[in-house]
Amino acid sequence: MTEQIQRKLSESKTARWAVLALVAFTMLCGYFITDMMAPLQDLLQTPVDGGGLGWTANEYGKFTSAYGWFNVFFLMLIFGGMILDKMGVRFTGVMATSIMLVGVFIKWFGVSHDFGGETVSIFGTEWGYPLLVASLGYALFGVGVEIAGITVSKIIVKWFKGKEMALAMGLEMACARIGTGLAIGITPLLSRAFGNSISMPIFIGLILLCIGLISFIVFVVMDKRRDVEDAAAATGEEEAEEPFRFGDILDIITLKGFWYMALLCVLFYSAVFPFLKYAPNLMINKFGIDPEWSGVIPALLPFGNILLTPFFGNLYDRKGKGATIMIIGSVMLIFIHCMFSIPMLNNWIVALCLIILLGIAFSLVPSAMWPSVPKIIPENKLGTAYALIFWVQNWGLMGVPYMIGIVLDKYCITGMVDGKPTYNYMIPMMIFTCFGILALFISLLLKREDRIKGYGLELPNIQKDADIVLAEEMIGEGQR
Ligand SMILES: NCCCC[C@H](NC(=O)[C@@H](N)CCCCN)C(=O)O
């Protein structure tokens, strides 16, 4: 009887959607904290006697780029992928969420503690202690949230394989976007509610992430129960999962298709996530929006993704055309950033329309990109492959905000208001347009490679999933 109930857990629709809800909530908390500083850029750049931290745009760029420091230079993300393949989703997920918590705590300490204006010189540049400590905390947090990201992908594969996998991935991304949308939309309001505080919104993020950890621990209990039950019900016919081999990395990086995917990922995401970090400031400087409401229009992007990512994922599942979807997304990206770069298009309605379009483009590409990876990479190497793609992508997530910060301070200052510089965003937006052009080029190469190698990127996923299930059944039959 107990066994029956437990088997119901492993096969139950309610259980797997509950699992998705639990881990997606953890990711929502992670994305909330990832993006919560963007709407505070104006406040961070406010002089210390005005209640800010007196950072320059360059310093804000340094802080933002810290997200990728440990992932990129210390290869933390790749180690995370290996740990995931070796230790499993439960251990890695709890580890990643705990790392996030420690990281946010350090970041909160950095911006809330009075260091008495002390600075330190690193590689010839002066760093104020709040900036350095907050950046180190954010760098650690970046390790946690990225490893959590690959872990959750593997959890979705484990619980949804042969079922609604692409839809589940789309929904998980949708939840992550809720986190981003809330971060951009409500952080300025939270800050204002606590007297223009920078530290209180971070503290609230910390509390939220504690709930995210509890949510993940509930998943751990369910997943463990499922494994115990699966082990008890095992007939001995199941294939044991292949252990991680270092050779796997070589197998992956020698595939042209992998590189097209990784490059497309870094180019496309570099034109969106780093853009979002500056979008509230762009709204203030170009479209004359009040700082308190500067996050509202950019917040529409992630909120648009919430509906559209699962929608396009479902479309890809049924109709295919994955490579074409990525091409269309890249073309849209070029158009949108090009329009943003034109100085005379400075009415807020233009900003609104362009952000809505960006929301569509940023739903199209991820909904086709992530479910396409398993078509190029064999399943037993997927964890490592996702980690490698994330690693390449992190170069962009780290380098681009840093570069934009430097460009803003060097070439784009148009004046000073209340002790803060005002900016012309034309050059940064042209840089983002160039990423779109390169992304288009790579997506065309990917489509060509798909034609040559027959990865099936243009084929519906459901058809492919059905084939896989059929093939697995046939193998099972044969073994019996
Ligand atoms: N199941 C798909 C997971 C990929 C989602 C993807 N996340 C990333 O690319 C992260 N490496 C970067 C997250 C940066 C957060 N501001 C996504 O589309 O969010």
TrEMBL record:
Coiled coil: none annotated. Residues 19-451 form the Major facilitator superfamily (MFS) profile domain. One of its GO terms (molecular function) is transmembrane transporter activity. The keyword DNA-binding does not apply. The chain crosses the membrane at residues 15-34, 66-84, 91-111, 131-153, 165-186, 198-221, 258-276, 296-316, 323-342, 348-370, 382-405, 425-446. It is a multi-pass membrane protein. Keywords: Lysosome, Membrane, Transmembrane, Transmembrane helix, Transport. GO terms for cellular component: lysosomal membrane. The keyword Chloroplast does not apply. InterPro entries: MFS, MFS_dom, MFS_trans_sf, MFSD1. Its main location: membrane. Belongs to the major facilitator superfamily. PANTHER family: MAJOR FACILITATOR SUPERFAMILY DOMAIN-CONTAINING PROTEIN 1. Lysosomal dipeptide uniporter that selectively exports lysine, arginine or histidine-containing dipeptides with a net positive charge from the lysosome lumen into the cytosol. Could play a role in a specific type of protein O-glycosylation indirectly regulating macrophages migration and tissue invasion. Also essential for liver homeostasis. Homodimer. Interacts with lysosomal protein GLMP (via lumenal domain); the interaction starts while both proteins are still in the endoplasmic reticulum and is required for stabilization of MFSD1 in lysosomes but has no direct effect on its targeting to lysosomes or transporter activity. This is Lysosomal dipeptide transporter MFSD1.
